[in-house]
Design a protein that fits this description.
The protein has 186 residues and is mainly α. It contains eleven helices and no strands.
Length: 186
């Protein structure tokens, strides 16, 4: 864990996040603030978990802003593939195609229940852990101090994000009872 979490530092400005969210503001609609805050929570938690050698806030910000975006752009709860496609297009059009495999893995594995195939010190694994921390309201902490997780949550309040996930889960379960959580992998 970085000194970052122990010192309580928070990264409060990810221009890439705001740029992408502005592009997709109409699709996000009233969920924009909730998703914005989730993205910032996951990005900060991921930075806190990442080892110094692999810490890259720009990669984390890109993965964070796209990781769930397919929910709104494609109006689906089976959103991993659409989210990956959005990130891939974004990276390719900005001359960052060499980042595609790692960002794609970060998005594809962020709901994996068990550790990512990547080693535990990779951005893929730190991102997976960060999303689990946020989705579970800090019940899974992966070694991060509770006060740090609370500070992240206070800086970027839920704003209805978890309620929206619950609504989407119930709707998906009603329509697809044999596949209620298609994004979860073992």
């Amino acid at each position: 864990m970085l000194q970052y979490a122990e010192q309580g530092c928070l990264l409060t400005n990810f221009p890439i996040v705001d740029e992408v969210l502005d592009i997709h503001a109409s699709e996000l609609g009233p969920d924009r603030t909730a998703y914005h805050n989730h993205v910032y929570r996951v990005a900060n938690l991921s930075v806190a978990i990442a080892e110094d050698a692999v810490f890259d806030p720009k990669k984390i910000a890109i993965a964070a802003v796209f990781h769930d975006l397919g929910i709104w752009t494609n109006k689906t709860f089976d959103y991993i593939a659409p989210s990956v496609a959005l990130a891939r297009k974004y990276l390719a059009t900005r001359g960052m195609a060499d980042w595609i495999p790692e960002i794609e893995a970060m998005i594809a594995d962020h709901h994996k229940v068990t550790s990512s195939r990547a080693n535990s010190h990779s951005l893929v694994e730190s991102f997976r852990r960060a999303d689990w921390i946020d989705v579970t309201f800090g019940l899974r902490r992966f070694g991060l101090p509770r006060p740090f997780i609370a500070a992240v949550s206070a800086a970027w309040p839920d704003a209805g994000f978890h309620r929206r996930l619950a609504e989407l889960t119930i709707d998906r379960w009603r329509k697809h009872p044999l596949s209620p959580l298609p994004m979860v992998k073992w």
